[in-house]
From TrEMBL:
Compositional bias segments (type: Basic and acidic residues): 33-43
UniProt keyword annotation of Signal present: yes
Protein name according to UniProt: Zinc-binding protein
Top-rank lineage group of the source organism: Bacteria
Lineage: Bacteria, Pseudomonadati, Pseudomonadota, Gammaproteobacteria, Pseudomonadales
Keywords, ordered alphabetically: Signal
Alphabetical list of InterPro entries matching this protein: ZrgA-like (IPR021253)
Organism: Halopseudomonas yangmingensis
Amino acid sequence: MRTLPLLAGGLLTALSLAVHAHDHGHDHHKHDHNHDHAEHQHGDTLGAHQHGVASLNLVVADGHVAIELHSPADNLLGFEHLPSSAEDKARVRQLMTQLQDVANVVQLPAAAGCTLVDSELSSPLFAALDKADSQAQHKHDHDHDHDHKAADDEHAHNDIELHYHFNCANAGSLDQLRVTLFEQFPRTERLLLQAVTPKGQQGGELTAANPVIVF
Ligand SMILES: [Zn+2]
């Protein structure tokens, strides 16, 4: 819980910027600073990089929903090394496609009329996909001595970060969120929840047996 104020600040700033409705100029510098700080320390958000565990940060305000999910890549993919083989690259691409369909991650009440207006997937694995592709097109030398992490990080640990932002037409029906991630990615056993909703701050743990946040 120690990082909640930082994360909430970052999420609320993102929400405010997206909404263009909370122009409290005097607070922006402070929030921006906190946001950067939180970004750089997101490893601490997980406590430790622990396979099977991910963190879910949720902000619900005025019919807007911001979600940040930080997960070890293993939970979603079954491996964490940077993809270099054609098979691994195909699996990473498939994962990105799955994650771009937010229904595979979370579900909001149909009555709330929510639309996904922004999403972002980030991971060293996704970045490596682009680099590996461009290198393959430009180089055919397999023995060069440069420090290419993709070649020698078989035992590295890497995370995946997901960001989704919804606008909901009927805020009055926006009373819960169901995590569907557990069904799609059973290697994810627990989500550590930090939420700021109209009912205040909420923490806790979500599992396949307990996948719903009510607010
Ligand atoms: Zn790991």
